[in-house]
Amino acid sequence: MAKKFMYLNRKAPYGTVYALESLEVVLIGAAFDQDVSLAFVGDGVYQLTKGQKTDDIGQKNFSPTYSALGDYDVNKIYVEKESLEERGLSLDDLQHLVWEDEDEDWAEKDSIRLVSRAELADVLAEQDITLSF
């Protein structure tokens, strides 16, 4: 049975390498058929916000890459509800990430699962390996 890998994203998308490095490691792991999940907590929720503009900071906007996660069968993306609320954000402020369910005639399904802190703690406890970024 494949090990469950959780990538815990806690940092804002720009200003450090953590967010981009996490995304790259997730894509590599998924390409090798790892059972991959992602969680976004704290300032990590900003990684998924819509309409990111990076021209003024001189960094490449890598946020569109999140839309490719479904193509790599990464469809368990957990966003902590309290982290969104503490930052004045809602699910509507995030990118719409989907995956296609081949068992249901390729129906598009939402990848993002909004969970409470307590629910996320339960999900984290089920993982074999948790990598924090």
Question: What this model shows, in words?
Answer:
With 133 residues, the chain is α/β, with parallel strands linked by helices. It has a single domain (4-132), classed as Hypothetical Protein Ychn, Chain: A, CATH 3.40.1260.10. The protein contains 3 helices and 7 strands; from the N terminus they run E-H-E-E-H-E-E-E-H-E. The strands form 2 sheets. A 5-stranded parallel beta sheet has the order 6-3-2-1-7. Strands 4-5 form a two-stranded antiparallel ribbon. The longest helix is centred in the first third of the chain and has 14 residues, at 18-31. The protein is globular. The chain starts with a strand and ends with a strand. The model has no long low-confidence stretch (mean pLDDT 95).
Provide a quick synopsis of the model.
The protein has one domain: DsrEFH-like (Hypothetical Protein Ychn, Chain: A), CATH 3.40.1260. The model has no long low-confidence stretch (mean pLDDT 95).
Distance between the termini: 25 Å
Task: Point out poorly predicted stretches.
Answer: none
Question: How many domain units?
Answer: 1
Q: Average pLDDT value?
A: 95
Beta-strand proportion: 15-25%
CATH class: Alpha Beta
CATH H-level name... which superfamily?
DsrEFH-like
Radius of gyration, CA atoms, in whole angstroms: 14 Å
> What is the number of helices?
3
Shape: globular
Order of helices and strands: EHEEHEEEHE
Question: Which fold does the CATH topology refer to?
Answer: Hypothetical Protein Ychn, Chain: A
Key terms:
133 residues, alpha/beta, Hypothetical Protein Ychn, Chain: A, 5-stranded parallel beta sheet, two-stranded antiparallel ribbon, 7 strands, globular
